[in-house]
Amino acid sequence: MSGPRKMRRMHGVKPENTGKTIKRILSYVNEYKIHLVLVFLFVLLSSLSSIAGTYFLKPLINNYIMPLIGKQNPDLSAFLRLVLLMALIYAFGALSTYGYNRLMLKISTGTLYKIRTDMFRHMQSLPVKFFDTHTHGELMSRYTNDTDALRNMLSQSFVSLVSSSVTVIGVFISMCILSPILTAIVVLMLFVMIFTIRKLGSKSGTFFKEQQMAVGKVNGYIEEMIEGQKVIKVFCHEDEAKRGFDKLNEDLFEASKGAHTFASMLRPVMGNLSYIHYSITAIIGAVLSVTTGFDLGSLAAFLQYTRAFSQPVTMMSEQFNAILMA
Q: How far is CA 42 from CA 45, 105, 119, 167, 318, in A?
């Protein structure tokens, strides 16, 4: 079939320097330095609020719940004060999350406005030869599909990576304080997760690049066929036009299938690994609680941190594909 041959040609295209491209995109974001500082501040506050709220489980269980078990008419005032403090911490974190999402919305829309303006101005200075070698659909794809990928990267992926990084660092420090032994188990499992992410992420990233290229070619071909529809009818080239479209459509199908197959596998695979991770940690923690006197409050807090540790790792792996598309 013609599809595989076409796909081999697409594989041969040398991709642009991803790091250099991201650096150039971030140069547009530098115009919003004050907004970015506020975003980082809100992200930090949001992540720290979540980490601090979870850490309060240790004193809540050890100092307030366990001593009250079996007591007649227990005094719940201190318990309720700590619960109220935890609620305020989580509410503060929620407000911080709302704040950085609103700011990133302003940054992403303003940045894309500037990029589209520069793209259009640059297009006016291009030589005629450029338009002879690029179809109208390919050019339109830069203004639609590619800018939409940039919007997703700026409004979602960028801030998710920062938030996840801060959360992972904060959670890791808290776990080291609670139990160095259980933390070592978490680190070992982390290497397994990173290995899985690299295997699946590298494959999906390659196909995502090919998908963006294929979308531009399909759009360009459709644009040409629509503009030349009368000529096609006059010279009876309908079958040839269909064959050309089928080739490009098959390329897009293959690239999209590969990209979304590996990308959709990532979340369930990482989810199952996190469940296995959680179970192993719970079993070892229970053994430590019985044999070494590891308190229940620390175990409960550590198990929450275990889940909070694996979720950002999964989230970061998912956002890498969005950045590659951008």
A: 5, 14, 32, 13, 22
Rounded mean pLDDT of 165-194? Answer: 89
By the 8 A CB rule, do 81 and 59 touch? no
Taking the whole predicted model, whether its pTM rises above 0.90 is answered as no
Rg (Cα) of the chain, in Å, rounded?
Answer: 26
321 — pLDDT class (breaks 50, 70, 90) = low
Q: Is the pLDDT of residue 232 over 70?
A: yes
Domains and CATH numbers, the chain: 2-325 (1.20.1560.10)
Task: Answer for the pair 80, 64: CB distance below 8 angstroms, yes or no.
Answer: no
**DSSP letter for each residue of 76-122:** -HHHHHHHHHHHHHHHHHHHHHHHHHHHHHHHHHHHHHHHHHHHHHH
What angle, rounded to 10 degrees, do the helices at 158-178 and 296-325 form?
160
Q: How high is the pLDDT of residue 316?
A: 63
**DSSP 3-state of 17:** coil
Coil, strand or helix: which one is 175? helix
> In the structure, what pLDDT confidence band is assigned to residue 16 with cuts at 50, 70 and 90?
low
Start-to-end C-alpha separation, the chain: 31
17 residue type, one letter = N
Q: What pLDDT is recorded for position 13?
A: 41
Alpha-carbon distance of 303 to 283, in angstroms, equals: 11
Cα–Cα distance between 95 and 93 in angstroms, integer? 5
317: pLDDT confidence band, cut at 50, 70 and 90?
low
